[in-house]
TrEMBL record:
Keywords: Coiled coil, Isomerase
Primary enzyme class: isomerase
InterPro entries cross-referenced by the UniProt entry: Chorismate_II_sf, Chorismate_mutase_highGC-bac, CM_dom_sf, CM_II_prokaryot
Region (Disordered): 1-28
A GO BP annotation: chorismate metabolic process
Alphabetized SUPFAM superfamilies for the sequence: Chorismate mutase II
Coiled coil regions in record: 30-57
An example molecular function term from Gene Ontology annotations: chorismate mutase activity
Claim: Transmembrane helix is one of the keywords in the record: no
Protein name: Chorismate mutase
Hydrolase is among the record's keywords: no
Length: 114
């Protein structure tokens, strides 16, 4: 006659509990979830690094365009072009895209505005 403990399933749950609900199964599930979080966070951090780098390059190039235009008496800003950019972000990203475009333009324009 087996002892009561030898009747316990190997995954740590009580024999009366459904598969996947035992202490071990829950611990394994939690470890997998933790690993998944770390994997996605690694990629998110990499994406953020790239975004920051791209925003910096964009701002630098934008300031060069602005400087070139102003060197011949033009304005710093060009509203028709900005509207095209705002629409592009809005169409690609939805309502929040418009706000992203406005922030990107603000970062690119520097403090002075026009
Ligand atoms: C860079 C330019 O100058 C300004 C900055 C813009 C930008 O950062 O995208 C867009 C229009 C202008 O207000 C441009 O005209 O292309």
């Amino acid at each position: 006659m087996p002892s009561p403990t030898s009747l316990r399933p190997a995954d740590g749950r009580a024999a009366s509990e459904p598969v996947g609900t035992g202490v071990r199964a829950q611990a394994e599930g939690a470890a997998e979830a933790d690993a998944e979080v770390l994997r996605h966070r690694d990629r998110i951090d990499e994406i953020d690094r790239q975004l920051i780098e791209l925003i910096r390059e964009r701002a630098e190039r934008s300031r060069m365009v602005q400087a070139a235009r102003m060197s011949t008496g033009g304005t710093r800003t060009h509203l028709a072009r900005e509207n095209q950019i705002i629409n592009r972000y809005g169409e690609a990203l939805g309502e929040g895209g418009t706000e992203v475009a406005l922030l990107v333009l603000r970062l690119s324009r520097g403090v002075a505005g026009r």
